[in-house]
TrEMBL record:
It comes from Rhodococcus artemisiae. Residues 172-253 form the MDMPI C-terminal domain. It comes from the Bacteria. The lineage of its organism: Bacteria, Bacillati, Actinomycetota, Actinomycetes, Mycobacteriales. This is Maleylpyruvate isomerase family mycothiol-dependent enzyme. InterPro entries: DinB/YfiT-like, Maleyloyr_isom, MDMPI_C-term_domain, MDMPI_metal-binding. Residues 10-147 form the Mycothiol-dependent maleylpyruvate isomerase metal-binding domain.
Length: 267
């Protein structure tokens, strides 16, 4: 709690300032998320914090399940809030965000470690309330980057919030490499990230893909890219096929390319 809560509150403040600085038609700027503008992302953020504050999901006049980018019930819930706030002016959406995070800040401030350890339903299944709040850091941080990318400005690519938020991504790397990237038995893979979240990730496949401190033998495939690109590939914001020119592959490049093209893990 002592790690997650202050970073989540800081993320709320960062987004509040970002939204408050958006003017005019910039609210309607398309983002890398299908069907969503900058204002739609703000509506989604309001919706999730409203859910956590106990606010009922608003009724809308369309069947959101018919929208092409809605593939599951979480997406359908998000779309209810997007549609609900679609005709609300951007500055009012910003004000509503400030109001709901003020409620959430008060609620989070009164919680104990026992509250954070309590069982909770989360976007990744049954876990703890604390895990849900770590996912909130990830979601809010990634949407901060989405808004900056759409507006052509710079967000928090590194630092404590990015490190905590990206933990969701790095925790999914074995699944992405083994299941989605179909790395073969015996493969030894090194993913080298440069940039603000620079690190070396070593994986070996023995029945399943696992992160290891160091490889038992030279890598069979190497993948090198900037962490800013890695985050957007993992978040499904850009296509691996389109970004291969920004990735350096070594060793078995067929396996490396397949991993890059299947890095997206978000629901």
């Amino acid at each position: 709690m002592d790690v997650i809560r202050p970073l989540l509150l800081e993320q709320f403040e960062t987004l509040d300032a970002l939204l408050a600085g958006i003017e005019g038609d910039a609210w309607f700027t398309p983002t890398n998320l299908p069907g969503w503008t900058v204002k739609d992302i703000a509506a989604h953020l309001i919706g999730t914090e409203s859910l956590l504050a106990g606010v009922a999901t608003p009724h809308v006049d369309i069947d959101v399940h018919t929208l092409g980018h809605v593939r599951n019930e979480i997406a359908a819930f998000n779309e209810h809030w997007v549609e609900h706030l679609r005709r609300v002016p951007g500055p009012e959406v910003s004000a509503r965000y400030r109001d709901i995070v003020a409620q959430r800040r008060e609620s989070l401030g009164s919680m104990t470690q026992a509250d954070f350890d309590a069982p909770a339903d989360t976007p990744v299944g049954p876990a703890t309330y604390g895990r849900f709040m770590r996912i909130r850091v990830f979601d809010c941080w990634l949407h901060e980057l989405d808004i900056h990318d759409a507006l052509g400005t710079t967000g928090s690519e590194g630092g404590p919030r990015a490190e905590l938020g990206s933990a969701e991504i790095f925790g999914a790397v074995p699944f992405v490499v083994g299941k989605r990237g179909k790395a073969p038995e015996g493969a030894r893979i090194t993913i080298e990230l440069t940039g603000p979240l620079a690190r070396t990730i070593n994986l070996e496949v023995a029945g399943r893909a696992s992160v290891v401190p160091s490889l038992s033998a030279p890598a069979t495939s190497t993948i090198t890219m900037d962490s800013t690109l890695f985050v957007r590939l993992a978040g499904g914001r850009v296509s691996g096929v389109d970004k291969l020119g920004e990735v350096a592959l070594g060793g078995d490049t067929v396996v490396g390319r397949r991993i890059v093209e299947n890095l997206a893990f978000t629901i």
